[in-house]
Amino acid sequence: MVNKENTRHYTWGNNCDSWIMVDTEGLSVKQELMPPGTNEELHVHEKARQFFFVLNGTAVFYVNGQKQIISAQQGLSILPGTNHFIANESNENLEFLVISQPSTTNDRQNI
Question: What's the burial of 52, exposed, middle or buried (CB within 10 Å: 0-12/13-18/19+)?
Fold first, then answer.
């Protein structure tokens, strides 16, 4: 069994958290938490397809220059070669799952 208490954790960006639930070459599953007012850098993955599922809060995605708002219990798929980033533009924490196939390890290019 895997949960936030017994898996690898790292921080990224401006005090954002990531817990690695599955980490193989073919699949990555992470649970992430973004505090209010934080965002990721615009980037692209050459091989990885990603699926984001919002657990709590509201996510704002910028996908190929278009803004998309995803609420709790909703998801969004990002295809390889798509410029994107996620932001928390609310006053509440944003918690979500990000599932990548294959893993995004060595498959990220910041724009």
Answer: buried
Q: Structure pTM? A: 0.96
CA 32 to the chain's CA centroid: 7
- Secondary structure of the chain: what % helix, strand, coil (to 5)? 0, 55, 45
Token pair for 52: 């984001």
Q: What is the pLDDT of residues 35-85, one digit of tens each?
A: 999 999 999 999 999 999 999 999 999 999 999 999 999 999 999 999 999
Return d(Cα 36, Cα 33) in angstroms, integer.
Answer: 10
Query: 16 pLDDT band (50/70/90 cuts)?
Result: very high
* Integer Cα distance of 91 and 57 in angstroms: 9
- 5 phi and psi, to 5 degrees? -80, -20
Tell me the HSE value of 99 on the side-chain side, using a 13 A CA sphere: 7
